[in-house]
Automatic annotation (TrEMBL):
Protein name: Pentafunctional AROM polypeptide
Entry's localization field: Cytoplasm
Catalytic activity as recorded in UniProt: 3-dehydroquinate = 3-dehydroshikimate + H2O; shikimate + NADP(+) = 3-dehydroshikimate + NADPH + H(+); 7-phospho-2-dehydro-3-deoxy-D-arabino-heptonate = 3-dehydroquinate + phosphate; 3-phosphoshikimate + phosphoenolpyruvate = 5-O-(1-carboxyvinyl)-3-phosphoshikimate + phosphate
Protein keywords: Amino-acid biosynthesis, Aromatic amino acid biosynthesis, ATP-binding, Cytoplasm, Kinase, Lyase, Metal-binding, Multifunctional enzyme, NADP, Nucleotide-binding, Oxidoreductase, Transferase, Zinc
GO process terms (BP): amino acid biosynthetic process; aromatic amino acid family biosynthetic process; chorismate biosynthetic process
Record gene name: ARO1
Subunit structure and binding partners: Homodimer.
Length: 1662
């Protein structure tokens, strides 16, 4: 078969005709050399060889002398690059190919596009033959002459038009094509039909089974082969025609881009995991939705298109299961998608070009149309914002509308017509997921054919009289309840037939469907002869239904108290049973009688009359027979859906008329207007077929008090969202009779209560319904955290959109999540709400973090914490401490039990025995856990793990599922999505210590067993039952302070919160602009080697410490854990730890070559997650492993990463052998005549892709340099290749190892690994220290020297130059710090300006007397918030503002210095939770201002300022009261006149003691003269006389010359205290000076100041 394109019949279509192909090639293109280029997949499948053989033998037969060359390149998009093109060209030149060569592209679109491009430029263009082997290539890429290669900036950006001489389409190739690739091509086929030809589309709709059967080889015969060829021809003809009319794409050809504008944008993110056609499939649905929204296309067509795509296994949304499976860690934020569309060559500004359908087979324009961003955003967004309209809304206007058809009636009508005899036209059908699911199931089961008429308004079905059959594979029913119930009975009717291969049908659904009950129906059917078995959970889908005798008929008993759908299901199938059926409903109450009546009435319309027994009302008689299809059947509107626009009228004061539902309706919910809205005070008019409601314009909705909604259950959601708007004294509404709503799409009663409460509506659940109260003033507010969560339930979504419309305050915009769930019954709901009801609806996409869909909702950050562990490990102590610090409730389970049983535990045990005690303990645990899911710290008894039940309870509490998930079993890992409690195992590194202590304690029950034996049995249980493990390391003497500090940090980390609800932040990751470093600790045993080494020395300038586990002397888990916790103790948690096990293969010591050792590797990693490591190194790729181990590695790594919680994952890859390259290298072998491979797999780009897709937070790629050029390649990779691949901006560490790679260590910016001179050995070859790196950077011009200064007067004795210059020197920075001393401020400023303009200015410290005046000097362009509040600046920083201009920025680090030092002391003080703090500031200069600000930040309730000149103190206090106090009414600043009043403690503060935080800013030289020693003495005496109300005082002296000032000396006398527990602590000014200088240092240089070195130098200076 031939098709003409651009005037030549150059497209040939056929099946298995290689002979003719080669013959025609040799005839049409005479050539000296024929070059076949293909990929290794096709080569492996022998396609290349057989083609080559045919061609060679034909040439021989012709006695011609032409050569045949073959080149095989690796498959997939990744090779479609300029580099590959260049290599192919080099190879062609090497082979002496000339102008008369002919290229033959045998392969998919990748080969076709790239070889086409080669042909178009080689020797200014040579002929090319296309032999497409994928469906996509056949119908699309091979036709039309577009050729291209990709660049990192995007796909197909470089290319040309070059028409092939011939295109040979041979469908035989499709038989080896993977299924997914086939579907991928079908997307283009469907696309073409969709824009061009409705008949063609219909053909595709009806033949999907045969087409797919040909492709997967299950049914290859003449018929299927012809059908496939017809489908391909249909598509190719259109494309050929369009290309002929518009070759260079100026208009018409643009139509072929339907689905591509949006599809391409998704593809940019989702490639390569998701294929082009799959993205286009999603794009088509979205673009059709846009056409719908703009009013060009009817909603029904979107459903039709989606269904057709689905039947070819194509995804229709990015939420699709398949997409989530192949690209689990990728997301497509709407703004990102729009951004990508912005750079598409075809778009313009804020408008995008999109092909708008106007029907199936028709488009709105003969080209793509412009669509605004706003509309696209709306359609793409997963959530919507609903803006409440003005009240009253559209008065004097009648809003009328049609509501979609009833789902119940649609489904029934479809089923009846399919089972019936003859044609039937159904109109008004609902186009929803449910109906689609039903339609495609019926197609499979009955083989009905159907077609759409009137633009999809009418469906013509040809029923086949109940002639049912089995079918291959499963029938997937999604979450469609009706379909699954109805079809279960239908499938039971199938009788076995000899000819069929398959003897059963499997019905399955989504996760929720697999929980919904179906047992009563199945029981009834099985009792009547059906053979049904459950394949999953008992009583739910999936079901396997065996074809045997069919239903026997006779009497069927059915328990009908859960769902009327069971009843309808049996009723409708009953006529086809072997004998007439008598259906008897058993059970208490039969629910939803209206639905049963509806079924009976509809069956009557289809010719079967059910008789309800006149005496026994619950008995129905159904005759045998076949449904007779009426020629036409009109489906009425969905009465439940109609409640939304009607309720809208009620809450907005508008008038709404629903045109297709009235009192004659079969549906119970049709009574909503009369039974609910009229009672609430709306005007309701109802005719046979219409309903009109007018809401009160004065907002006076009346409460209904109490209503039985049993006959209109689905409308209860609508009723409960208008109930809060009722107004009267007693306006609570009780809705009952709706128990069945608990087992719908979700537990709807619970859902409504949960979501309404989030708006501040008072409501509660009852067993049979709920009670909703309207609150005074109707002061409802949108939920603050996230939006309305809809539980994937259409009714929840629609009712809340109505609730929001009732909010009176227009500014209260509410987000409704999961907007798509309305598709189930009203796909056009959001369009109707906007376009018909007139409400502003805006699309929003929440950031991935706030997109709450995947986590259990509502997110509770405050999950309770359970502490388990051996007796005496410290659980109670730890629990009390945590409760106090985190302000939570503490529950000691033992204590609770004693109170509960009113009996001490030893007594319980001695009188009733251990078993009884354990039972009671378990019961109490269950009770406590159910009552305290949040905000509690629960300490358990040591033996809690002794019973299986308690263990199971603890395990499931901490997210360890019992489903035999061998992976998580093996790894002992908590599923972070299932974690309900944090269960922390408190463990001692030295158990003996605990036992010694226990044996002394007589108050505890005696152990009969040897303690060590007990520990050995329980150890594993504790591990099993916990999600985290905290190890208390043995010290010579117990130091609980340190343990507490470590524990608190630990808990804050694992719960993801600090106590003030801020998420834990990570140094290094926060500010990617600043250089950052980490050091690898290469010790074998910290306890032995590190303790005396002062670990601080290693930390200078670092952001992270790497703990190299593989270098430790033992791999024992207990040993490793102890090392980690020792390290933390030493580090005081100042620097986070990176936990790394480096394998031999990647340059470490750990041998992971056996399966066991590999599993141990992952076991240790997962344990480190339990220890809450901040960063974890994971080797996701490792090439030298056997195939088997490789897959273990991949899946284990995946498990670890998806349960990482707050740990950041660093995915690392080390190529120690230099076999990977940063940029593509030519590697086609020039010698080989046959073929060779370009090894893409050996490129870092390839590795990067893999690691990026793993869900890691940081990527680390390490190569090995063999020459200096490798470093430049690396730089090219980082600067040009990565930015194009790295959509989510994952930070990257990229380095070359070895001496020749040292340069790369200077080029890397983020987390560069460094060594230290005191380390036993460097962790990697070529590693440098920070100073070496900086010195090199200076030499190669990457770091320019800057000058820093101190401005002030007099400053000659200042320590600042020493501090900063030491810092510069230690880190190897080429900077210098000097004094800029002058009494003349202008002179000072001039110097700064000159340095700034000449680009060597680094920054300045500011001191007396300029801290305040610098603010008004005009020198600074911007200042920080703190500076504005304080009114003083001590740091000047040159930097770039947002626009990129260089500016001078004013900062204040004084207050930080003060705050940090107070915090340090407070951390080690005995602070009680309700302690009160009073701040005292002595002095009133710039420093005093910073002090006042710091005290305010430290939560002082009162701040007293004293100064010799009272007016100055008063000025500050006034200013601060004004600025700071806006939001905080309890805080006051007071200026104090009389020193005697400074330490007054107004005794009425009886709930906690007072602590004074004192800051003196008086210079050391002036301290002799003041009377402050007396004042301090008075503090001491007050404290002693009022010791019950005063906790103590802390003095920070800002003066540091001399180091021990008079005040400090005197305060020391106070703190050398007697026996009293009053705490007096002090801090030298030098400490504050240092702390604030470290801050300055960081601000100026971006480097962490080397604190250890600076402190040592400064102290030795004296
Ligand atoms: N020029 C155009 O107008 C145009 C139009 C659409 C798409 N494209 C381009 O086409 C490319 C995609 O083409 P594709 O989908 O054919 O991908 P592809 O060429 O990568 O082929 C897909 C996979 O199937 C394998 N394969 C090919 N034929 C096979 C067979 N008969 N049996 C078994 N395996 C087989 C390939 O080795 C490859 O792994 C993209 O680069 C896209 O940009 C171009
Ligand atoms: Zn395409």
């Amino acid at each position: 078969m031939r098709i003409s394109i651009l005037g030549t019949e150059s497209i040939v279509v056929g099946y298995d005709y290689t002979k003719e192909i080669t013959k025609e090639i040799l005839e049409t293109v005479k050539s000296s050399t024929y070059i076949i280029i293909s990929d290794s997949n096709l080569n492996r499948l022998n396609h290349v060889k057989s083609f080559e053989n045919q061609l060679t033998s034909d040439i021989a037969n012709l006695n011609a002398s032409s050569r045949v060359l073959t080149l095989i390149i690796p498959p997939t998009e990744i090779v479609k690059t300029r580099e590959t093109k260049e290599q192919i060209e080099n190879w062609l030149l090497d082979k002496k190919c000339t102008r008369d060569s002919c290229l033959i592209a045998l392969g998919g679109g990748v080969i076709g596009d790239m070889i086409g491009f080669v042909a178009s430029t080689f020797m200014r263009g040579i002929p090319i033959i296309q032999i497409p082997t994928t469906l996509l290539a056949m119908v699309d890429s091979s036709v039309g002459g577009k050729t291209a290669v990709d660049t990192p900036h995007g796909k197909n950006l470089i290319g040309s038009f070059h028409q092939p001489s011939r295109i040979f389409i041979d469908t035989k190739y499709l038989r080896t094509l993977p299924k997914r690739e086939f579907s991928n091509g079908m997307a283009e086929v469907i696309k073409t039909a969709c824009i061009w030809d409705e008949k063609e589309f219909e053909f595709l709709e009806n033949n999907y089974e045969k087409i797919l059967a040909f492709s997967d080889g299950s049914l290859v015969n003449d018929e299927t082969s012809q059908i496939l060829v017809k489908a391909i021809l249909g598509s190719v003809k259109v494309k050929a025609h369009v290309v002929t009319v518009d070759e260079k794409e100026s208009g018409l050809r643009g139509l072929l881009n339907f689905g591509h504008s949006i599809g391409h944008a998704f593809e940019a993110i989702l490639t390569p995991q998701v294929l082009h056609g799959e993205c286009v499939s999603i794009g088509m649905v979205k673009e059709a939705e846009i056409a719908c929204h703009l009013g060009h296309l009817k909603e029904v067509n979107v459903g039709r298109l989606s269904r057709c795509l689905k039947s070819y296994d194509l995804p229709i949304s990015i939420e699709d299961k398949m997409i989530k499976n192949v690209a689990p860690h990728k997301s497509c934020p709407v703004e990102k998608v729009l951004d990508i569309m912005r750079i598409d060559k075809k778009n313009q500004g804020n408008e995008k070009r999109i092909v708008l359908l106007s029907g199936i087979g028709k488009t709105f324009e003969q080209k793509a149309s412009f669509v605004s961003d706003e509309v696209i955003r709306k359609i793409l967004s997963p959530a919507v914002i609903v803006v409440p309209p003005e009240f009253p809304h559209r008065v004097n206007q009648l809003i009328s509308l049609n509501v979609p058809g009833s789902k119940s009636i649609s489904n029934r009508a479809l089923l009846l017509a399919a089972l019936g005899d003859g044609p039937c036209r159904l109109s008004g059908l609902l186009h929803s997921d449910d109906v689609q699911v039903m339609l495609s199931a019926l197609q499979k089961l009955i083989g009905i054919t159907f077609c759409w008429e009137d633009d999809g308004e009418t469906l013509l079905i040809h029923g086949n009289g109940g002639n049912l059959r089995t079918c291959e594979g499963e029938i997937y029913l999604g979450n469609a309840g009706t379909a699954s119930r109805f079809l279960t009975s239908v499938c039971s009717l199938i009788k076995v037939r000899g000819s069929e291969q398959c003897s059963d049908v499997i019905l399955t659904g989504n996760a929720r469907m697999k929980q919904r009950p179906i047992a009563p129906l199945v029981d009834a059917l099985v009792a009547n002869g059906a053979k049904i078995s459950y394949l999953g959970n008992e009583g739910a889908l999936p079901l396997q239904i065996k074809a045997e005798t069919g239903l026997l008929g006779g009497t069927i008993n059915l328990s009908a108290s859960i769902s009327s759908q069971y009843v309808s299901s049996i009723l409708m199938s009953a006529p086809y049973a072997v004998n007439p059926v008598t259906l008897i409903l058993t059970g208490n109450a039969v629910i939803s009688q209206p639905y049963i009546d509806m079924t009976i009435s509809m069956m009557k319309s289809f010719g079967i009359e059910v008789v309800r027994d006149s005496e026994k009302l619950n008995t129905y008689h159904i005759p045998k027979g076949v449904y007779r299809n009426p020629a036409e059947y009109l489906i009425e509107a969905d009465a439940s859906s109609a409640t939304y626009p009607l309720a809208f009228a009620a809450v907005t004061g508008s008038t709404v008329k629903v045109m297709n539902i009235g009192f004659k309706s079969l549906q119970g919910d049709a009574e909503f207007a009369v039974k609910v809205l009229r009672v609430m005070g709306c005007r309701v008019e109802q005719t046979e077929t219409t309903t009109t409601v007018q809401g009160p314009v004065n907002q006076n909705l009346k409460p209904i008090k109490s209503i039985d909604m049993e006959t209109l259950t689905d409308a209860f959601l609508t009723a409960s969202v208008i109930a809060p708007y009722a107004s009267s004294d007693d306006s609570s509404t009780r809705i009952f009779g709706i128990e069945n709503q608990r087992v719908k799409e979700c537990d709807r009663i619970a859902a409504m209560v949960e979501q309404l409460s989030r708006f501040g509506v008072k409501c509660k659940e009852n067993p049979d319904g709920l009670t909703v109260e309207a609150i005074d003033g109707k002061n409802y507010h949108p939920p603050t955290n996230g939006g309305v969560f809809c539980y994937d339930d259409h009714r929840v979504a629609m009712s809340f959109s109505i609730f929001v419309c009732g909010l009176r305050d227009k500014s209260k915009k509410t987000i409704i999540l999961e907007k798509k769930c309305v598709d189930k019954t009203w796909p056009g709901w959001w369009n109707t709400l906007e376009n018909v009801l007139g409400v502003n609806v805006i699309g929003v996409d929440l950031l991935p973090e706030t997109n709450l869909k995947s986590v259990d909702y509502p997110v509770k950050f405050n999950k309770s914490i359970i502490l388990i562990g051996m007796r005496g490990a410290g659980k109670t102590h730890a629990g009390k401490f945590l409760a106090k610090s985190l302000k939570r409730k503490f529950i000691d389970l033992d204590e609770y039990l004693e109170n509960y049983l009113k009996c001490p535990i030893p007594f319980i045990i001695s009188s009733k025995g251990w078993e009884y005690f354990r039972q009671q303990e378990l019961a109490v645990l269950q009770k406590v856990l159910s009552e305290h899911q949040h905000d509690a710290i629960i300490a358990t008894g040591g033996g809690i793990v002794e019973t299986v039940e308690a263990r199971e309870l603890l395990k499931s509490s901490c997210g360890k599922t019992d489903q035999h998930n061998s992976k998580s079993e093996l790894l002992d890992i908590s599923d972070s999505k299932l974690l309900k409690f944090h269960v922390i195992h408190i463990k001692r590194s030295d158990m003996q210590q605990v036992f010694d202590y226990l044996s002394e304690d007589k108050s505890r029950p005696a152990f009969t067993n040897d303690l060590m034996k007990v520990w050995n049995t329980r150890k594993e249980w504790y591990e099993d039952c916990s999600s985290s493990e905290f190890i208390i390391v043995k010290e010579e003497h117990e130091n609980w302070r340190q343990v507490e500090r470590d524990l608190l940090e630990f808990v804050k980390f694992i719960t993801g919160l600090s106590d003030n609800s801020e998420v834990v932040s990570f140094p290094g990751l926060n500010n990617l602009k600043d250089p950052s470093f980490f050091l690898s600790l290469t010790f074998k045993n910290f306890e032995k080697e590190l303790k005396n080494l002062q670990i601080e020395r290693f930390c200078d300038g670092l952001n992270l410490l790497e703990l190299r586990i593989d270098l430790l002397e033992s791999m024992d888990l207990d040993f490793i854990g102890k090392q980690l916790f020792i390290l933390r103790r030493l580090l005081k948690r100042k620097i986070p730890v990176l936990f790394t096990i480096r394998t031999i293969n990647q340059g470490g010591k750990y041998d992971d070559q056996t399966k066991e050792s590999l599993l141990t590797y992952f076991k240790i990693l997962s344990r480190s997650l339990k220890w809450g490591v901040e960063y974890l190194d994971v080797e996701i790729l490792n090439y030298n492993l056997s195939e088997n181990c490789h897959s273990i590695r991949t899946s284990m790594a995946e498990t670890i990463i998806s349960n990482k919680n707050n740990t950041k994952i660093l995915a690392s890859f080390h190529d120690c052998h230099g076999s990977f390259h940063w940029v593509a290298k030519s590697s086609i072998s020039h010698k080989s005549d046959r073929f060779s491979l370009i090894e893409v797999e050996n490129s870092f780009g390839f590795v990067f892709e893999k690691l990026r897709n793993s869900g890691a937070d940081i990527i680390k790629l390490i190569g090995t340099a063999s020459s200096i050029n490798d470093n430049f390649d690396l730089k090219r990779f980082v600067d040009f290749i990565v930015p194009c691949m790295n959509h989510s901006n994952i930070p990257l560490i990229a380095l070359n190892m070895g001496m020749r790679g040292q340069l790369s260590r200077c080029l890397n910016h983020f987390l560069t690994p460094v060594t230290h001179k005191d380390m036993p050995f460097a962790a990697a070859p070529g590693q440098l220290s920070i100073s070496e790196i900086n010195e090199t950077k200076k030499l190669i011009g990457l770091l320019s020297p800057k000058r820093f200064s101190l401005i002030g007067y007099p400053i000659s004795r200042s320590l600042s130059p020493l501090i900063h210059n030491t810092g510069f020197q230690v880190l190897g920075l080429p900077h210098h710090y000097e004094l800029n001393e002058s009494k003349d401020f202008n002179e000072v400023v001039e110097k700064i300006k000159i340095a700034f303009i000449n680009d060597y200015y680094g920054g300045s410290s500011v001191t007396i007397p300029y801290k305040e005046s610098v603010l008004n000097s005009g020198l600074l362009n911007e200042t920080s918030e703190a500076v504005k509040l304080i009114g003083a600046c001590n740091t000047i920083i040159p930097k770039k503002n947002e626009k990129g201009d260089s500016i001078l920025y004013g900062e204040n680090t004084d207050w930080k210095g003060i705050t940090v030092n107070f915090e340090k002391i407070l951390e080690n003080s005995n602070v009680s939770a309700n302690e009160k703090r009073i701040g005292i500031v002595i002095g009133a200069g710039g420093t005093a201002r910073a002090a006042a600000y710091s005290l305010y930040k430290l939560n002082c309730t009162e701040i007293r300022i004293y100064n010799r000149t009272f007016e100055k103190a008063e000025l500050i206090s006034k200013e601060f009261n004004l600025k700071v106090n806006e939001n905080n009414s309890s805080l006051r600043f007071h200026a104090i006149k009389n020193t005697a009043e400074l330490f007054k403690n107004d005794g009425n503060h009886n709930d906690g003691k007072t602590r004074f935080l004192i800051v003196s800013t008086i210079p050391g030289s002036a301290q002799e003269e003041t009377n402050f020693k007396n004042v301090f003495a008075s503090l001491k005496s007050t404290a002693e006389s009022e010791s019950s109300s005063i906790a103590g005082g802390i003095l920070i002296d800002m003066a540091y010359l001399p180091k021990q000032t008079e005040y400090l000396k005197f305060f020391k006398i106070l703190s050398d205290k007697d026996s009293s527990d009053i705490e007096f602590e002090k801090c030298e000014g030098l400490e504050v000076l240092l702390t604030q200088a470290y801050e300055q240092f960081f601000h100026w240089t971006g480097f962490q100041a080397p604190e250890f070195a600076i402190r040592n130098t400064v102290l030795n200076n004296e």
